[in-house]
Amino acid sequence: MNRFYRLGILATLHSIPGPPRPANRIHAGQSAMFRLKSYRNRQTMKSYQEYQKSTASLRQELDKIRREHAERVLQELRECIIEFGFRPEQLMPPPCTARRRAKYYNPASGATWTGRGRPPDWIRDKDFSLYLLPANADGATVSGAVAPEPLGR
Length: 153
Hints:
Layout: H1 2-7, H2 9-15, H3 32-84, H4 88-91, E1 104-105, E2 112-113
Antiparallel strand pairs: 1-2
């Protein structure tokens, strides 16, 4: 750099007057990079807020259009149900409310276990066949049945 000063190149460049710098925005020690970053942050914040406003208005418009279409679709469905004679149980299957039947029974506490998931403490590390519930002729378990006595005791 000193070499350029000796040649007079930098000295002449510094002496050329440029456009005046705005004094109200630039503080002593504030770099151009900092000014650029703060400008970008302001611009980013503005665009973010603008995007938020536009997405809110778009969502409202979308909801309005969706409600309009939903009314038309519902009317069409009603007409088709009447025209083709569908019954409600054909359109919507009944909810599955059947619970799993108990497969294992603890005679000490009366607790049962279906055999699914993690085994409870009373059956863990033991022979599961000792706690099996007897089955009815149709395959259903008797909920109040007492498990047979363990054979090995």
